[in-house]
Amino acid sequence: MGMKVGHTGITWGIPGDPERAYRDTAELGYLGFETFGHTLRQVDFRPLVAEHGIPVCAAYVSRMWIDPEKLPAELETARMDADALKELSGETIVLACNRRPPGGLDADAFRRLADGLHEAARHCRGLGLTTGLHPHTGTHVETREDIERIMELLDPALVGFAPDTGQIAKGGSDVVGVCRRYRDRTTHVHLKDWGGSPGPEDDTGYVNYQPVGSGVLPMPELLALYTDFDGWVNVELDGTDGAPRPPREAAAMSRRYLGELLGDRVAWRR
Fold this sequence. Notes:
Blueprint: E1 4-8, H1 18-27, E2 33-36, H2 37-40, H3 46-52, E3 56-63, H4 71-87, E4 92-97, H5 107-127, E5 130-133, H6 144-153, E6 160-161, H7 165-170, H8 175-181, E7 188-191, E8 193-194, E9 209-210, H9 219-224, E10 232-235, H10 247-262
Parallel strand pairs: 1-2, 1-10, 2-3, 3-4, 4-5, 5-6, 7-10
Antiparallel strand pairs: 8-9
């Protein structure tokens, strides 16, 4: 089959139109679809999968993970998200964090974060799902230092690495260096391009991000890291009210670029 390249639904908004997002993703030739875990509990994707034939391969699950009083409820809903993905024969739970406190996390908070992620991952492993930690700007895990601190604490048998190329670059890190360092622990990839401006100003319409191949990131070098990757590489582009083009057009731009770059390394749907 070669590389498994899908697309996430966030380009169509939050919550947006998940059913339209799924249909567009399938019709453009992508091989899989990813959405938020809670969306899987709100929308019945089974008729869509039966009609269009691409799997809901992954679910994005974001919580704080560090507050002992809130953690039991967070874990319960995370387990529900994982159960919903399993019912759709999905593969990966992408574990992310919510907004970071001022100054980031101290050593104790990082340990609590690792413990919370481990607890969520144990349930996923029991279902046969893989997990991966997803760095994201503005959250507990944003900078390269954040990434290195939490990866040192995580058990690779429980929680892998799920890089987001645009988020890592926007967070100030060498994205190729980070992705190469944790390639052996990688279970899932979010592939987005970046406009090159780390500040609050957004010239792209997508919170500083770009369709794949339209920004400044070295996509050929990044994708070369995943030529023999068994997990999913899912294109992502944050949809906003200021987006300069419809979601399907943005997804189509990434698809055209990747089709030219990867060719028959991906068994694109026809």
